[in-house]
Amino acid sequence: MPVLTENRRTGIVPPPPVTPPGGRGDDDSSNSGSSFPISKGQIGVWILLTAVIMLFAGLSSAYIVLRGVPAWQRIELPWLLWPNTAILLLSSVAIDISRRAVRRNDLQSMKRWLAAGGILGLVFLVGQLAAWRQLVDAGVYLPSTLQSGFFYILTGLHGLHLIGGVVALGLVLWKAVKDRLSAFNYEPLKLCALYWHVMDALWIYLFLLLLLL
Amino acid sequence: MSESHVATHHELGFVRKYIFSTDHKVIGVQYMITAMFMAIIGGLLSMLMRYQLAWPQALSPMMAKLFPISYNGGVMAPEFYISLVTMHGTIMVFFLFTAVLTGGFGNFLIPLQIGARDMAFPFLNALSYWVFLLSCIVIFAALFVASGAPMGGWTAYAPLSAIPSAAPGQATGMTLWITAIALFAVSGLMGGLNYITTILTMRTKGLSMMRLPLTQWSLLITSILGLLAFPVLLGAGILLLFDRMGGTSFFVPAGIIMNQVPLDHSGGHPLLWQHLFWFFGHPEVYIVVLPAMGMASDILSTFCRKPIFSYRMMVYSMVAIAVLSFIVWGHHMFVSGMNPFLGSVFTLTTLLIAVPSAVKTFNWLGTVWGARIRFTPAALFALGFISMFVSGGLSGIFLGTSAADIQLQDTYFVVAHFHLVMAIAPLFAAFAGLYFWFPKMFGRFMNNTLGKIHFWFTFIGAYCVFFPMHIIGVGGQMRRIYDPTQYMFLQPQQPMNVFISISAFILGTAQLIFLANFIVSIFAGKPAAERNPWQANTLEWTAPNPPGHGNFPPDLPTVYRWPFDYSVPGEREDFVPQTVPTTVTARH
C-alpha cells in the first residue's frame, strides 16, 4: 500500500484493484487490508448524507404536522426558485460530465466542467439569496407565517450544506489543477459528485414540499 | 496518513502525544476523563437535590455563600431546584453516559478489538473530541448564568423552552443548553461516522462480522442509532432556537400571556416538540444501554469462562431493539393529549421491546448458569449491570402500558425506572469496563479489594436509593417536586425520602473510593506485565500494555475463530484467543 501512496504523488498510478489483493489485512502498512467492497471515503460520505437526510426528514415531518394547524397560511413562493432549480440541475450535469471525463482520462475537460459546476453552484446560492430578497420585498419575513419560517430555515440549511459542497468542490478542483487526479485515482471527485447530486435531489424534494404542501 | 502508521511508535512532543493527539486510545481516554469530570458535577447536583428533598426547609449557610441568589435567605429557591433537575439530567444523559460509553470505550476499543492501527479518519476523531469538550464547556457555563441555569428539564418541553421570558433560567441558560446539545450532536456525528466506517472496513484478516466481539456489535448498532436520531434532535433544536430568537412560532401556540402581555406567537404546536424530541429521546436510551449490554456480555463471558450463550441471538436481539426503538417514542406522551388510539399502538410496540430484552437476559443467565465465575470487580459490575437492567426493565412494562402509565406518569416511579435502567445499569457496565480494560489503558491494575468494596457499596447503595422510589412514586410523589412536605398526602412518606437521601450520600461518597483507586492506580497500580491478564480471547489482549501508536507491533493479528472459545473441551487451556489457528474444527 505505501508504494501505491507514493505513486499517487507522482501521478503514475497503476489502476487500483476493486478489492485489495490477498484478502483481509495481510498487508501491514495500513489498515486498508479489509476486503470490504466499499471504500472508507464512500462509506463516510454516505453516513454523512444519511445524517443530512435525517435532519431534513425531521424538519419536513415538522412541516407536515404544522401544515395541519388552522393558523397555517400559504405564502407566494418567489419565481426565482424556478431558474435557481434549473441552475442547480445544470451544475449537477456539469459535475457529472466532469466525472465521465476523468474516467476517459480527459483531464482538461474534467477541470473545465468541474469549475463550471462550482460556478453554477455559486450562482444558485446567489440566486437563493436573491429569492430571499424577493420575499423580503414582498413583506414576507421569517416570523410572518409558519410556512415562511420553514421557507427561510429549509432554504438556509440547504444553502449551508451546499456551501460545504462548494468548498469540497474547490478542494477537488485544486487537486485537479495540481494534477493529482487521473482516471485511476479520482475518488475525491466521485465523492464530491455524490454529495452534490444528493444535495441537488434534496433541493428538488424541498422545493416540491414548499410548493405543493 | 497511512505512512504515519508504518512505524509503530513515533516520538512526539507531550502536547501532540497526549493533548492534540489523533491516536484513538488517547482520544478515548480524553473522553473518559472529561466524562468523569462531568459525572462529578452531575453527581454533586443530585446530592443538592437529595438534601433539599429530605430536609426541605433546612438552612444551608455554606451553599448560601456559594450561590447567594439561588439560596436567598439560606434556603434553596424552587427555581434553583428545577435548574438542578435539568442540569443533572442533561449532564448525565449526554455528557456522561453517551460520552463515556460510545466516545470513551468506543474510541479506545474499536481499533483494538478489530485489529486495526487506528480509526478510519483519525483527524475527524480528534475533532469530535474537541467539539465534545466545547459542548461540555458550554453546558457547564449554563450553570453560572446570572439569570439562572436552564429550567426546562433534560427534555426541554415547549413552550417553556421556546419562550425566553417564561422563567429566569429560560433566557441565556436555555440558549446555552440548545447550543451545547447542538455541538454535542455534531461531535456525535463525527464520532459515529468514524465508528461505523472503521468497524465495517478495517477489520483485520479473518475477522468476519459474525466473529466480532459483542462490544463491537453494540457500538456499531449504537452508532447507527445515533446517526439516525441525533440529526432529528438537531433539527428540532434549530426550530426551537428560531422560536426563541427569530420570532417564529413552531412550538408556541397562540394566546400565551407573559406578565400580562400577550405574546406575538401564533399557531404553533407544543406537542410537535415532544414528538421530535422523543423520536430522538427513545433511541438515545438505547444509544446508552446497547454498548453497556455489549461490554457486559463480553466481560461476563470472560469471567464465567464460558462462551456467551447464543451469540447470534445476542446480535439479532440488539438489532431488534434498535429497530423497535424508533417506533416507541409515543410511550413518553401517553398523557400529553396525543390521540388515545395512538397510545395503544405505542403500548404494543413498547411491550414488544420486552421480547429481545428478555432474550438477552435469558442468554446472560445461560452464560452464568453453572459457571465457575471469577469474581473480579469487573465481573461483579457486569453481573450488577444485569441485575439493575432487569430491575429497571420490569417497571418499564408498567410504564409502557398506557392504562397503568396514566397513574404513574410523572411520579417517582418513573424516576426509579429510568435511573435503574438507563443510568445505574450503564454506570455498572462502564465501571465493569474500566476495571476490565484498565490494564490495557494504563499498563497497571486497579486495586482489587478497593474495587470489590466499591462494588458492594454501589450495588447496595443504588438499590437503597432507587428501590424505595417506586413506593413513594406509587404513593403519588411527583417527579420534579421541590418540597414533598407541602402536601398532606405525601407527608407520611417523608421518612422514606430521608432514607433515600442518606443512601444517596453514602452511594455518592463510595464513588470517591473508585476515584481514588482510579487516579492512584494510573501512577502506582500493580504493573500489568502480562499482555492478557484476564485470559481473554479478544484481539486487544494480544497488544502490549498499554499499546503503542499503531497498536499491534509489528504485524496486525490474523483471526481464526470467534471470541468466545472458553473452556473448549480438549484444549490445554480454558481459553483460546481469536488469533490461535483452528486445526480440526472451527466452531464459527
Protein described:
The complex is a heterodimer of chains A (213) and B (588). Chain A has 213 residues and is mostly helical. Chain A folds into 2 domains: 37 residues, no CATH class; 174 residues, Four Helix Bundle (Hemerythrin (Met), subunit A). In chain A, 70% of the residues lie in helices and 0% in strands. Chain A has 6 helices and no strands. In chain A, helix 4 packs antiparallel against helix 5. By secondary structure, chain B is mainly alpha-helical. Chain B has 2 domains: 228 residues, Up-down Bundle (Cytochrome C Oxidase, Chain A), CATH 1.20.210.10; 229 residues, Up-down Bundle (Cytochrome C Oxidase, Chain A). Chain B is 61% helix and 1% strand. Chain B has a two-stranded antiparallel sheet with strand order 1-2. The longest helix of chain B has 37 residues. Chain B is globular and about 80 Å long. The N terminus of chain B is likely disordered.
Keywords:
heterodimer, A: 213 residues, mainly alpha, Four Helix Bundle (Hemerythrin (Met), subunit A), 6 helices, 70% helix, elongated, disordered N terminus, B: 588 residues, Cytochrome C Oxidase, Chain A, 2 domains, two-stranded antiparallel sheet, 2 strands, 61% helix
